[in-house]
Amino acid sequence: DSGVTQTPKHLITATGQRVTLRCSPRSGDLSVYWYQQSLDQGLQFLIQYYNGEERAKGNILERFSAQQFPDLHSELNLSSLELGDSALYFCASSPSVTGGNEQYFGPGTRLTVT
Amino acid sequence: QKEVEQDPGPLSVPEGAIVSLNCTYSNSAFQYFMWYRQYSRKGPELLMYTYSSGNKEDGRFTAQVDKSSKYISLFIRDSQPSDSATYLCAMSATSGGSYIPTFGRGTSLIVHP
């Protein structure tokens, strides 16, 4: 158990809908990262937050947004969902702001868009 | 050409074998090199990371980085059926003060009794 929690575990929704994925980092970790994992693209970095502020952005679609709250939990919002958004979404946390060498992943949220 | 290339496998070995997993990369700016293990339907688990070139050992696992060849390896000694998983290499370079990892697609390893 990495200490990172994600909810929900599974989500099934229809095209055009909006969903929110939630992540709680390990105790003491200030950095949160979001990733998308699909069979054809592998693990893709979406966005990083550090202590409430956006730090780095990857290949995140404009339909997707995220935020990190004062209690350090983070939410990833996916809107106008398309079939191609079906994937595993992982959150990871790190003890440092630079963090790229040491990340701890949550169990993921499996999103299915029908 | 992808920044990080990793053979997807599957790689099937008998229990007790030495396993060699490899990745090549094209970005010479990468400074941190990591290996993650991912069991089916679980999140990736960090095994080890190294900074720049050299070797690092942790129990049955040894990571090697050859920056001149842009090649990294993970060796698993005395492999066990419980090592059966997908192994992801990852590498990071600084981006505005953050090190954002780029992952390989993963190699599926099967260790059979």
Short description:
The complex is a heterodimer of chains A (114) and B (113). Chain A is 0% helix and 53% strand.
Task: Kindly state the number of beta strands of chain A.
Answer: 11
Note the quaternary state here.
heterodimer
Structural class of chain A: mainly beta
- Unreliable parts of chain A: none
User: Strand-and-helix sequence of chain B, N→C?
Assistant: EEEEEEEEEEE
Mean pLDDT of chain B: 93
Main beta-sheet annotation of chain B: 6 strands, mixed
Q: How many beta-strand runs of chain B?
A: 11
Describe the largest sheet of chain A: 7 strands, mixed
- Proportion of beta-strand residues of chain A: over 45%
Low-confidence stretches of chain B: none
The Cα radius of gyration of chain B reads: 14 Å
Helix and strand run of chain A: EEEEEEEEEEE
Average pLDDT of chain A works out at: 94
Overview of this structure, please?
The complex is a heterodimer of chains A (114) and B (113). Chain A is an all-beta fold and 114 residues long. Chain A has no helices and eleven strands. In chain A, strand 5 (42-50) and strand 6 (53-57) form a beta hairpin. The radius of gyration of chain A is 13 Å and the shape is globular. The relative contact order of chain A is 0.33. The model of chain A has no long low-confidence stretch (mean pLDDT 94). Chain B has 113 residues and is an all-beta fold. Chain B is built from no helices and eleven strands. In chain B, the strands form two sheets. In chain B, strands 2, 4, 5, 9, 10 and 11 form a six-stranded mixed beta sheet that branches. In chain B, strands 1-3-8-7-6 form a five-stranded antiparallel beta sheet, with no helix packed on it. The model of chain B has no long low-confidence stretch (mean pLDDT 93).
